[in-house]
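From the pipeline queue, job 12 of 40. The input is one protein chain; the requested action is below.

Action: predict structure.
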Amino acid sequence: MLEKLRQMRQRIVEQTRVRLAQQQQLCQRCNNNIASLKALSDSSDGIASDAVQLHNQARFKATLRRVIDWQEQERALAAIEQVRIQRELAEHARREMALRVVMEQQKQALRMALERDQQKQTDAQGIQSWMRNKKSE
């Protein structure tokens, strides 16, 4: 029963690790998007030669700024979620480890009980043999 619980908790830890890795990838994608958008915004400086182009360039930069702001919000939310998942992973791992320790203690207690039983059987056989030898003397 404890083994099934341990396996279930171990699966939860692995699933949480996968979710954390996905969240880290999302954070990295946001960072890459922000860097690319900023580079695009910076590269569009000084291209316009007349008023219409200047107006279009200004609108383009304003749109890029909104997209950058949106990506920064996404990055912040993703970072918050990443921290939450890291805490969740630590909690799940702690529970799984505690269960593993309990199971190991139970196995050790069982081994010791078996060793005691074997020693009792050996002692009983030794006493029987000694008593047989004593009777035959």
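Job complete. Residues 26 and 78 are 7 Å apart (CA to CA).
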